[in-house]
Amino acid sequence: MPPVPGSRIVFRWRKWDGSPHWEHDCVFLGSDEWGDWFGQRAGWRSHRPGREMPAETANVVLLPAGTSEWVATLNAPAHRTRVYIDVAWRAGWREGEPAAIDMDLDVLRDDDRGTFVDDEDEWAAHQVRYGYPADVIARLEAVTARLAREVGARRAPFDEATAQRWLAVLEATIDGAAPGEPGRLDSSE
Q1: Mean pLDDT, rounded, of the chain
Q2: Strands 97-110, 8-14: pairing kind
């Protein structure tokens, strides 16, 4: 169940074998017909074992309702990659935190390269390395192809209007709370 809007939380990603992958500090922004939205301000902490990568620009992240096979990040300018979808396994809420398993396929819309699927060249090696079941592989390849079409067509929620709406909510959010504690929304929100 989502926390109150303005709550600082950590979005946790794992690999198929359960090992830690990425953790992103973010703030819960609210929900709409697409699912639950989180925001990460420029400079907020993202890290994985052995690698720290603060957010280059502000971004908002959509965790679709229910158990999902993808999580979408929509980046603010001047980030060249506007849409970055992590194809996931069982993305959802776990013990009050958003969490997902990264499946090593990504759909991107980039100002320079257009829409494309990233990591396709690594997919076969990762299938062997992490032992992905064949039925999961087939399902997620189909999900990836569908998402690439929707992102390329700029269908909601992968469009600029949806991103701008939630980026405005992020801008209005005051980030004084520690992770897990409710924050406040600016009175202009």
Answers
A1: 88
A2: parallel
